[in-house]
User: Fold this.
Amino acid sequence: MEIFVNLAVNDLPRSIDFYRALGLSFDDRFSDENAACLVIEPGHINAMLLVKHFFSTFTLKPIVDSTVATEVILALSTDSRTEVDAFAERAAAAGAKASNEVNDLGFMYTRSFQDPDGHLWEIFWMDSEAALPNMTEVGNTATGSSTTGTEPANQPTPELTGHSPS
Assistant:
């Protein structure tokens, strides 16, 4: 299976230049004056960079202004902390803005940035074996939950599910 994430952009040539500066490539078969197919992981992960007027033809909903609101966070894993730093440094040199402080949990290391259109990207490395015992603790910290990891957290409310509690 292959995924194509669609991102609205203001200036397609500027976006293409930005992602090329990160060392990424494009598939010209799916690119024209309205769109460019950014290849993130060949054969698996792509991002369609669509100029806003063209993007709007795919949805009836308003397009989020990604410079002031979050629509999605795109997270890409790497094989090492060094690769995380190198990618984030290339992004900064190409004009990206850091969006958060470096997050070093020991078993996971993350840096994040905003591309020229404000889309949020996270580049991370994770030691999967070391991460497993820590995931409950990290999830509880992130959600503010006080669970021990043995009981369900974040139960849906009746307002969200349309069901009332029994």
About this structure: Residues 81-93 form the longest helix (13 residues). The beta strands are 3-9, 25-27, 35-41, 45-51, 73-77, 97-98, 103-104, 108-114, 120-126. The chain has six helices and nine strands. The first strand starts at residue 3 and ends at 9.
